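pinging the channel bc i need a second pair of eyes. not urgent but kinda urgent?? the chain im working w is below, pasted from the shared doc
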Amino acid sequence: KGERVMLPDYGMSLERYVFEPLDETTYFLVKQDILKTLDKYFSIVNVITLSVLSTPAEADRHELHVSLTLQLMDESLDIFDVEVTVG
């Protein structure tokens, strides 16, 4: 039976950006957090594209749109698109 490893800091804490302005600085910081998390927990992925932005309508509702395309660097070389709206 395999040993279970606890990862208490697994994932991201995007809630820290809830009250931040939706500007280029916040977009940059969110991107850096995403890249750092992927590098730490999913080192077998290659990030092809990553965008963090909001449209004027989303900005009025305080929403960020994150779009990510990544490729698994294993024998499959599968490519995944992930899109999420945070707000």
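so The first strand starts at residue 45 and ends at 53. and The longest helix spans residues 24-41. — does that match what u expected or am i reading it wrong
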